[in-house]
Specification:
This protein is α+β, with helices and mostly antiparallel strands and about 475 residues long. About 60% of the residues lie in helices and about 15% in strands. The protein contains 7 helices and 12 strands. The strands form 2 sheets. Strands 1, 4, 5, 6, 7, 8, 9, 10, 11 and 12 form a 10-stranded antiparallel β-sheet that branches. The protein is flat and about 145 Å long. InterPro entries: Cell_wall_metabolism_enzyme, Dup_hybrid_motif, M23ase_b-sheet_dom.
Length: about 475
Amino acid sequence: MKKFIPVLLLALVFLPVMLHAQNQSREELEKRKRELQKEMEEAQAILRETKKSSKESLAQLRAVRNKIDVRSKMIRNINDEIKFINGDINSALRDVKTLQSDLDTLKAQYAQLIVAAYKNRSSYALMNFIFSADSFNEAVKRYQYLKQYRDFRRRQADNIIETQAQLQLKVKNLQDQRVKRSATLKTEQEERSTLEKDRKEKDEVVAKLKGREKELLADISQKQKDQKKIQDLIRAVIRKEIEAARRKEAEELARRKAAEAAERKRREEERQRALAAAKEAAAKAAASNNAGNNTAAATQPAAPVPPPPKPEPAEPEKPTRVYNVLEASPEAAALGEKFEDNRGKLPWPVESGMIIGWFGKQRNADMERVVEENDGMIFATRKGGNVKAIFEGEVRVVMAIPGGGYSILVKHGQYFTNYVGLLSFNVKSGQKISTGQVIGTAKSNEEQSAGVIEVQIYKLDKLQNANQWIKPR
């Protein structure tokens, strides 16, 4: 018994924590369910757009595969929900058994009380019990005992009624949980059935695409050439920015050095003038003393010439080193540091949609020979959907891409973000923009009716892995 008490105390201490964790997990499960439902709606919308094309495409295959992935996550989420419901049912069963046992005990005890009361039902027996006491105080105690006995009997009856009500409530809760489990299981079965249809649809798309594999490989090769042209254009613009910043820094350094040299010259001239004035004053003082008293002048030493004032020590030149020429100003350096602090937390450039391409080489899981290489993260959204800036900065250039819409390059200190594939734009070079500001609309490509936008990230003119900068969802 002594060993059991500490265990019981620990259980009582940690029970609220366990219940809070369970409630929190349930809330997270519900939140994830809502997020997956939204993802599924977006995936279905993108797939509907891609199906408007006259022939199957890799974009359609990506959309179908994304829909399958989201549905698989939904099924896992439903299974987790079923586990919670099963836990609730088991808990309700335990409560029902406990309450039923308590109710049986209370009824048994109350039956005993009723039997005892029946046996002593005559008022004469009660009065005889009180007046047979040896003293008045004992008679009072016997009277109080009988009163407490009646109160206890009434409380037992109330406990029975209350326990019956709790038992009925628990039984109803148990029935509700079972109904909920049945509905959830039905939903899970429906989702699995739909998942099989999605997989069959994917297999059909893959089969048709394999018949056009040479055409697809040629399209990918042409896409890589177009990407290289864009890369060369962007790098040329960034290098131009760097050279302009270097020239500006060199001009600023030359201007600063010229100003410092002029200041040193001015101080030297002032020092020379002060020295000449001191010598002239000393000469005049010596001449005045000789004219007044030659004897005194012969016996007394001449007044010492005051030493020239020491030149003021030049202030040491403060180091002007910065991270690089693009962060020569404190504002630019602060913006670059702030951009770095948001690594992995940058928002999506579209309001809704999905990721259809990741940075780097992406081998198609269904077609081994098909390998795509992306310079950034590619997002699908509705055609003409708003494109937003993923971070504050300054627009450096807006350029037209032959057959590819427009590209907008935004500077963030030593970092740049490039938005490729815009249908239209509403910003201009030199304009300051904020995070989340709409900079244009998404254009659809030849193989996909939905809007597509690619976001590339540079550090100086070096392409960065956008997967590590933009949050996945």
